[in-house]
Amino acid sequence: NNALNTVMMGSVLEIIKSTVSTQEEARQRAELGAPEGTVIIAEEQTGGKGRLGRKWFSPYGKGIWMSLVLRPQQPLEFTSQLTLLTGVAVCRAIRKRTGLDVGIKWPNDILMNQRKVCGILLESTVEDKVVRYCIAGIGISVNIDREEYPEDLRDIATSLKAESGATVDRSLLIAAILEEFETLYQLYAQEGFLPIASLWEALSVTINQEVVFNTTQGLREGLAVGLDPSGALLVDTGMGNIVPVISGDVKLK
Ligand code: BTN
Q1: Atom number in ligand 1 closest to CA 20
Q2: Residue 120 CA, ligand 1 centroid: distance in Å
Q3: Residue to substitute in 58, 62, 106 for testing ligand 1 pocket (most ligand atoms within 8 angstroms of CB)
Q4: Which residues form the BPL/LPL catalytic domain (predicted)?
Q5: Residue 8 placed within a domain
Q6: Of the N and C termini of the chain, which has fewer Cβ atoms inside 10 Å?
């Protein structure tokens, strides 16, 4: 693709018509030694995977179903930072290409008018406590029409086209994402997570919102106030208690 201005991201780029999941395709390539920046894109996924064991609706030609092979030289506990970085890259690229007012819900759902347009799934393979590779899966509902959504998704999911009324060029958006990602990944390697965290907070629709989250003692709620240096969401539950939420989901109240 001659519109792609990156050095590393997409140096190997494969487009597949149909596959079960680009996560598995990328994992196979990574196991065979695919370099960092390898990108696998599918027109359709027959078994698209979401977070927390969910399915991901991936109809033919209507979205960006893509997985990136990353080889960060860092311990496993840093990979949640990479998840947030990926969300920032995608959010910035969507804003740049479409002008839509998308925001990030912690940890990394991209929302438009309270509905989800994009999800991110980061999977890491660890050996002897060292990360061998990460697969960053990005699913963006680009040109899905409202009536194409299955009934159960209609209230919670939307697409860029459904929100803007215009068909969005997927190749240009992919190029923008890979460029944003490469820039942020370099910034992260040089300056650490702090600059990424501020970018994330600026795009977040979760900060300054009342949220409900799960703990071992049941549901709790509070005001989301920011990210801690590891990427956990800090929630003020009152009486001076700030609780870090490390994994799972939060509900906006
Ligand atoms: C979520 O929000 O639950 C994460 C969704 C991630 C979907 C993408 S689409 C490309 C890649 N392949 C998959 O099977 N899943 C991810």
Answers
A1: 14
A2: 6
A3: 58
A4: 1-189
A5: no
A6: C
Say how many Å lie between the CA of residue 139 and the centre of ligand 1.
5
Is residue 2 over pLDDT 60?
A: no
User: Mean of the per-residue pLDDT values for the chain?
Assistant: 94
Closest residue by Cα to atom 7, ligand 1, is: 139
DSSP conformational letter for 239: T
Q: How far is the CA of 242 from the centre of ligand 1 (A)?
A: 31
Q: Which one, of 167, 23, 51, lies nearest residue 119 by Cα?
A: 51
CA of 240 to the centre of ligand 1 (A): 37
Contact 22, 40 (CB under 8 A): yes
Cα gap 233→108, rounded to integer Å: 11
For residue range 154-208, list pLDDT tens digits in order. Answer: 999 999 999 999 999 999 999 999 999 999 999 999 999 999 999 999 999 999 9
Instruction: Spell out where the chain has E strands.
Output: 13-19, 39-45, 63-70, 103-105, 109-112, 115-127, 130-141, 210-215, 218-227, 233-238, 241-245, 250-252
| Residues 158 and 215 grouped into a single domain | no
Residue 45 annotated as binding? yes
Local confidence band at 240 (pLDDT 50, 70, 90 cut-offs): confident
75 in any annotated domain: yes
Number of domains, the chain: 2
Same domain, 169 and 49: yes
- Please check whether residues 40 and 138 belong to one and the same domain: yes
The boundaries of the domain holding residue 237 are 210-252
Is the distance from the beta carbon of residue 66 to the nearest atom of ligand 1 less than 6 Å? yes
